[in-house]
Amino acid sequence: MDWVVRRPHPALRALVERYIGYRQHGVTLDVHRGLPSRNVTLIISLADPVRMLESPALGLDARRSQAFVGGLHTGPALIAQDFEQAGVHVEISPMGVQTLLGVSAPDLAGQILDVADLPRPGLAELPERLFEASGWARRFDLLDRALLTAATSSTTRRDPPDEVNWAWRRLVSTGGTVSIGSLAEDVGWSRRHFSQRFARELGLSPKQTARVVRFGRAAALVRTRPIGGLAEVAYRCGYFDQAHLTNEWRALAGCTPSVWIAEELPFLQDDPGLAEPS
Q: Rounded distance, CA 195 to CA 192, Å?
């Protein structure tokens, strides 16, 4: 396994969290579960096209794509895996989707689009350019350049309201454990108005977003194999108990944590990029 992580150009860091380059040989797990995440995900394959499988949670049919973007979602995205695979994984903040990709976060929510279908022609050229580049540093530089060009040439940039931006950052910083009522009170809106405006900007309600953020924190902690096991993960992530954690995994990952650990963790535990950024 070969994993490389880099932060984007400083001018992009409000829009993009990080780049993860990966190359794997000898993959024997046939299907990978793409777990819900607090980020919109851009994946560019540097090997064979990625094969998305049917996923009731996302309403997808089987499809092949050299590069695709997946919006915020509340269920697993099932991806067929090849014996050898390589590519780049870009984590985009929901706050930066409109600026970088030319579509809104709600338009992407629960969807997966081929990069060629986005109103950003420069992004469609990335698979070939990254494949021809020598080394991860050069590939990440090309990503910086392409995304900076998309951001600076955007005619559709529309920053979310400050109240929504603040609430988003608060949800992330608390690991999804802050109450929605207190968020609405802090920004000075009614809970109903806050929920409507938030969903209009992200495509998920504040409650759904909190669940996804908390789940992402739990998934990152599971990968560290804490001494206290799943009970410790549940406690540290704000679940009522281990049973509550397991129920959330069934709903959001399509399996229990134990099944996911047995299936996926052997292929992921050496990946430094899979811990959530602070």
A: 5
| 8 Å CB contact between 124 and 46 | no
Residue 61 included in any domain: yes
Residue 261: exposed, middle, or buried by beta-carbon count in 10 A (0-12, 13-18, 19+)? middle
Token code pair at residue 80: 């067929």
Q: What is the mean pLDDT of residues 39-62?
A: 80
Q: Torsion over CA of 200, 201, 203 and 209, rounded to 10 degrees?
A: -110
Strands (E) in 46-119, as ranges, are 50-52, 63-65, 67-70, 77-80, 84-92, 112-114
Which pTM was predicted?
0.90
Instruction: State the pLDDT confidence band at 189, using cuts at 50, 70 and 90.
Output: very high
Distances (CA, A) of 41 to 88, 108, 112, 223: 10, 10, 9, 20
Domain co-membership, 210 together with 110: no
